[in-house]
Amino acid sequence: MIHGSLFPAASDASDVSGDGALRVGLMGTGVVGSGTCQVLARNANLIAQRAGRPIRLVMATARNLLKAAQVLGPDVALVSDPLTLVRHPGIDVVVEVMGGVTLAKALVMEAIAHGKHVVTANKALLAEHGTEIFAAADARGVMVAYEGAVAVSIPIIKALREGLAANRILEVVGIVNGTTNFILTQMQEAGLSFESALRLATELGYAEADPTLDVSGMDAAHKTALLAAIAFGADLPLDQVHVQGISTLDPFDMVCAQALGYRIKLLGMARQRSDALELRVHPALVPEKHLLAQVPGAMNGIWVNADAAGPTFHYGAGAGSQTTASAVVADLIDVARLASADFSKRVQHRSLPASAIRSWHILPIGQVASRHYLRFAQDERLACLTGWLQDLGVDVQQWTHVQHPEVASHDAWVVLTPSLTGDVLVDALAGLRHRSGGLVPVAVWRVEDLDL
Ligand code: HSE
Asked: What is the pTM of this model?
């Protein structure tokens, strides 16, 4: 532990003021941690009124303690060992915004074992270990609040668990990764290369410490698994989410999609199909008039279709410092209000009691039906394409020729198929290749025809 005039001793974390404040220990003072400090300080009075008592940051731990001291100011005890913080009797709630999984899990479990409530924005942690963490929290009677883990500034967890609690959720389709939406928007509208757009997203604090998580679609998969867990009472089926990122997306496909009246977005989808779930993350064509197609930059948008409410659309910042802090502090306010409430009166971690959480059958991607977009490079055999496809049972609905306005070699025919499963499409494309003597599409993407 470091202490001195700049670092008050950890024992100072006790409630010396006697005003019943919620005493917060902060793990991580990077983008989200520093935003949390700023929001807690700036809106302290308002937050105290809404929470029914002050919320006081009393202790913190960070990789770089000197830098953390500048962020936190002199009133927060800084400790170098996070175990000191999660075990400290003067802490009521631990805010975990350090990221990563292995150490974060050990510390969160230790905090729970010591009777601390936990607020976290760590989607990877909960998507991978949520079942165990929520069970431990239930057994200890503490809350694990995680609004900041999904679509940061959008209160989608509150919307699903509380606002839409009367409904059966039918589908949740969202742009839930700010970094990739920022990259796609910059590529489409500002003509930036993938690399430049990613660099900019990292500079702006949107990307993960390891941006592969964003680009590969894994970050969106973590969030989609959490949304599915809440919406459908699913047992966090992360390993069954079909995931495809944006790195294989050719910017020319954005031009072609636009020519057909679509935008390409990285979507996270959880949808009930009879007694099974579709669960997937991949780039998809979205009709350009749909609200999801219009979500720009690092913003997120989530489309929820529910049996009583019908469709609702939830929009807001998907990444950033104070934007995530907004959710973290809202969770702290919930903890401040509910910490003393009877356990059974609190909202369940995944909306349903653990006994009602089930392992859904997740449809293999080959059995998921949708329309498909196929792009073929210019080839004289294309004159026969729609006829061949029709013979193979694929009745092409829409096709067009696209010539890139600036790149002469980018000259393509693009085709939209009727709705068919991935397996049927693979068979049809094998048939096309055989019949045509080698004709294959250079790009294949799914089309999501959502209701407007
Ligand atoms: N890297 C994440 C994103 C941060 O871009 O969405 C917010 O979860």
From this structure: 0.95
